[in-house]
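Translate sequence into structure tokens.
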Amino acid sequence: MLGGACLVVNNRVAPVDNVFNFLDEAESRAVMDSMVNKKTLNVKTKSVVNLVMDPLKSYFNPLEHILEDSEVDNGLEHLFSLESLGIKKCEKELVSFDKEQIDRFREGISFDNGFYHVELPWYTDKIDSVPSNHFVSLKVLDRTVEYLGKKGLIDKYQEVFDKQLEDSIIEEIKVSPSDYHKYIWIPHRPVIKLEEQVTTKIRPVFNCSLKTYRELPSLNEAAYPGIDLMGSILKLLFYFRTNKYVMLSDVKQAFLMIKLKNEVDKNRFCFFWKRGNKLVSYRYKTIVFGYTSSPFILNFVMKHHAESYPDDKCKEILTNNFYVDNPLVTGNNIDEMKNLYKQANDRMEQGGFILRSWNSNCVELREEMASDNRLAEAR
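Result follows.
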């Protein structure tokens, strides 16, 4: 038997392994002899790729000298993994600690008033040591306000917080300076993207990795990052090659749709802002972008939500075809695609998630999506 690895996508087999793993010994020898002969005789061909690639990698792989696969094959896993965030690869490899954390997180999920509420996963031996960081947050705020003032974007930035207040994503809290140390304050800065295709032109990004004391943990260091629950991006890419039509979307403000259940968790996501010359204090009632556990929490909750539906094609898509907050749907039957489009919208909305920015390579599908996209952006 040959040792080549494959992915099964839409009942089709897609080879993804080193080419030599699909050849028997005689075929491999013939290919190698051919390559050696060409090199020895200095034969020039029109071929650009001769089975060998030699990429420059930016990471250290201690196993590269003992693995039989090419460096490209061995590097793919690193390219598409989240190991740099400390997120473990798959649930099959979980140790008992991971199982305990995940079981505890699962038990803490509840659904109330149209949204999922969660208890955040922490390392209990670290979270109480995270400093308040209010001095740094106030200093960063001054620089942020100055920067936005020069750009003429203070009002636009303020609109983001006003909308989040209106949507109950954040809430204003009254904290006297003498009590700042009782809360964890996160500095924030604006990310500005003015490209036409970008749905959010300006948004705040919070630095949950702020580390002010070498011996004390940051908020992210005290957070259990979870495991990698995202769909395999390599497998998702193969869907483009195995079906005629594709639909893409994303979840509107995905992280901000998952609410925090505990008051103590909310008090760990506080921030300062200046409304005019007045200093105001807010705290998040949801998970945020920049918190290391947010991708795990989002994917876990969406899979948890999908489990409540009967086993069908739509459930399979909602369970396996997300990469962070982007679902991918492919098929060959336009009527089936329309049905999946409507089912996915309805089911995700029932969990508090709004699918927006739908697009497709099928004109008929795009026309149906246009008005729904406008409605989704207006909500």
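Note: The CA atoms of residues 132 and 184 lie 4 Å apart.
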